[in-house]
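Reviewer 2 asked us to include a model.

Predict the structure of this chain.
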Amino acid sequence: FAGLNGWLNSKPLTVAGLRGKVVLIDFWTYSCINCLRTLPYITSWDERYRASGLTIVGVHTPEFAFERVRSNVRENAEELGVEYPIALDNDFGTWNAWHNQYWPAKYLIDRNGHVRYYHFGEGDYNESENAIRELLAERTDADLPAPAALADESPRGLVTPESYLGHERLARYVGTTIAPDREQQYAFAPKLAENELTFGGRWRVEGERAVAARDARLRLRYRARDVYLVLTGRGSVSVLVDGKPERTIRVTREKLYTLVERGQIGDHLLELRFAPGVSGYAFTFG
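Predicted model (structure tokens):
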């Protein structure tokens, strides 16, 4: 663990100090939908195997500025039921020390301090649990609890890729030319191809987010079952799918919000109508 900004749920830990234990390191951040879908499996392993010698450390490496705030991480970790140690890696010191490139990423370390297994992204949970059980069994005659063997709920099928709204990573955008970091009027593009998005009304498009002003709207043609968006500020976002009202989101704090939940993957046109002052960061899909 290198260059950390503090710990939650634990006093400071070191890899050397954890020798003799099986350690699972999970790189995550609380507004990442892939990380959130992985957490139920990780928390179940913590509950099941902690007494058998497993220590889980969640390395919280932020993607967005608001995820660097300790109180935001603590509040969301409590809400998510994360009770194992959390290392606050705001400056990417531990991320870089591990040459990590992914949220989420899991590294499994044996009792001698050697990495014996790793996994990037979602899925393969039974494989990961079996790797944990094998390392725990290497130096103990005690019986392990029965495996959790939770069903893999990872999304299946081709969906729209992650879509950022800040100008630093904005892709598949059509419409009025972006004016970085200053407010201006935008007009919807007349047509959208698959996965394209467009702004309408007044926006200030900053590096990592788009800040809504008067009559701010957004359209996105997507393919997915579920749609999520990282939002900050205070106010409402009206959600329409294929021209019909879906729901109204009340933005009260900085986190990932669920915009659309459907039973199966489909092609749709999303329109969002923002209250002034609400900011959007990135769409993800499931």
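The first helix runs from residue 33 to 49. The mean pLDDT is 96. We have added this to the supplementary material.
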